[in-house]
Amino acid sequence: MSREISTFISTLLNAQIQKEFESAYIYLGFAAFFEQKGLSGFAKWYKIQAREEESHAMKFYDYLCRTDQKIDLLPINAPQKKPESIEQTLKAALVHEEYVTGLISNIYFQAEKENDLFTLNFLEWFITEQLEEEENARSLITKYEIFGSTPEGLYALDKELSQRK
Ligand code: FEO
Predict the structure, then answer these.
(1) How many DSSP H helices and E strands does the chain contain?
(2) How far apart are CA 21 and CA 33, in angstroms?
(3) Stretch 93-118: mean pLDDT, rounded?
(4) pLDDT tens-digit map of 6-53
(5) Which atom of ligand 1 lies nearest, measured to the CA of 49?
(6) What's the 23 CA to ligand 1 centre distance in angstroms?
(7) Residue 68: left if φ>0, alpha if ψ -120 to 50, beta else—which one?
(8) Whose Cα sits closest to atom 1 in ligand 1?
(9) Is this model's pTM higher than 0.70 or not?
(10) Pocket of ligand 1 (CB under 6 A)
(11) CA dist 15 to 12, 33, 99, 145, 156, Å?
């Protein structure tokens, strides 16, 4: 069993801090888009999502600290695309989560190659989380397709999303 985290894995984990903060930024942008549309339930849902992403970033930060690795903070870039429509935004969230799942998988496969059991164990939580995040994003798209086409349906959906804790 390897006890040392390689420089390569450490670089990937540091980059993931940036990616998680960038995810928070993307979802904050979505929240702002929904605020402007008067859909405060959707906005709340994405504000909470943004906070979750910050907490993901901090899990990577804490893991790097616990394993005595250097923290190398990278610039947080603005979201590349502005939300255009409700449908496009919900779909962009799913595409983004699939992208993040790919990033986590890449670190996992590298850790597997290097027999880095601590990192493999650490990433288990994120694998479960990514399944949930993709599921949530997919479910929002489905709900919007079913209910979003009428003002009454959209109102009910917005109300449901406002219940997120
Ligand atoms: Fe941190 Fe939504 O993945």
Answers:
(1) 5, 0
(2) 19
(3) 98
(4) 999 999 999 999 999 999 999 999 999 999 999 999 999 999 999 999
(5) 2
(6) 7
(7) left
(8) 53
(9) yes
(10) 20, 23, 53, 56, 97, 100, 133
(11) 5, 27, 14, 35, 39
